[in-house]
Amino acid sequence: MPICPKNKSSKSRRDKRRANWKMKPPTLVSCNKCSSLMMPHRVCKSCGSYNKREIISVE
Fold first, then answer.
1. CA–CA gap between residue 40 and residue 50 (Å, rounded)
2. Helix (H, G, I), strand (E, B) or coil at 43
């Protein structure tokens, strides 16, 4: 059984909680090997390398 609120929360107070739900663009870094944009701590999609080592062979 959930806890019942003691007082009514106003619309402005409720919406203040939801103010930080906005989406933000993904963080992109350049690859060390091919210098294309990629997400950090992941294998590069264009060259297949991670931390200057080839992990996946890409044609």
1. 10
2. coil
Residue 9 contacts by C-beta under 8 Å, 6 or more apart in sequence? Answer: none
Is residue 29 domain-resident? yes
Band (23; pLDDT cuts 50, 70, 90): confident
Between 22 and 30, residue with greater pLDDT: 30
DSSP string covering 4-37: PPSSPPPHHHHHHHGGG----PPP-EE-TTT--E
Q: Which residue range is the domain that position 59 belongs to?
A: 24-59
Q: Structural domain tally of the chain? A: 1
